[in-house]
Amino acid sequence: MKLCSICFSLTEDDPCRICTDERRDASLLCAVAEAKDIYAIERTSAYHGRYHVLGGLISPMDGIGPAQLRVKELVERIAHEKPQELVIATNPNAEGEATALYLSRLLSPSGLRVTRLAYGLPIGGDLDYADEVTLAKALEGRRAM
């Protein structure tokens, strides 16, 4: 196993099968923290773009800043491949939010559409059991029917 020279996912072949798949939507790029996050998204069969593995999340408490992640490689890749949208798919915790905010502020001025995974209630969930933050995020992210 080695890292893909394009997306930095774990692979046996370099570049990986996702990066070399011509059927993938090159206008979509999804930034994830770790390679395992790609497999979680792929299991949904709902995303058909490409990926970029950051190699972690910004965590000042642990001494991890943007320089320790593959942010420079992401910026270079965006400049080279010119995707239309960057989907930030980091966990909804302090580190994931910090990373998403940093990437959004860094890349939005370039005209790239930067989006974030939605928050909300799980399918089959019960409002009585949802915490206040999840309900608030679900209300903020509501959409027309």
H/E element order: EEHEHEHEHEH
Distance between the termini: 45 Å
- Which CATH top level class fits? Alpha Beta
The poorly predicted ranges are none
- Estimate the global geometry from the Cα principal axes: globular
Profile the largest sheet: 4 strands, parallel
The CATH architecture name reads: 3-Layer(aba) Sandwich
**Helical segment count:** 5
Would you give the CATH topology? Dna Topoisomerase Vi A Subunit, Chain: A, domain 2
Structural class: alpha/beta
How many domains comprise the coordinates?
1
Order the strands across the largest sheet as they lie in space.
4-3-5-6
The helical percent reads 25-40%
User: What is the rounded Rg?
Assistant: 16 Å
The portion of residues forming beta strands comes to 15-25%
Q: Please, what is the average pLDDT?
A: 94
Number of strands: 6
Keywords:
alpha/beta; four-stranded parallel β-sheet; two-stranded antiparallel ribbon; globular; 5 helices; 145 residues
Overview of this structure, please?
The chain is an alpha/beta fold and 145 residues long. It has a single domain, classed as Dna Topoisomerase Vi A Subunit, Chain: A, domain 2 (3-Layer(aba) Sandwich). Helix content is 32%, strand content 18%. It has 5 helices and 6 strands; from the N terminus they run ββαβαβαβαβα. Helix 4 links the parallel strand 5 and strand 6. The longest helix has 14 residues. The mean pLDDT is 94.
Task: Please sum up the structure shown.
The protein has helices spanning 17-20, 35-42, 71-81, 94-107, 132-140; strands at 2-3, 10-11, 25-32, 49-53, 85-89, 113-116. With 145 residues, it is α/β, with parallel strands linked by helices.
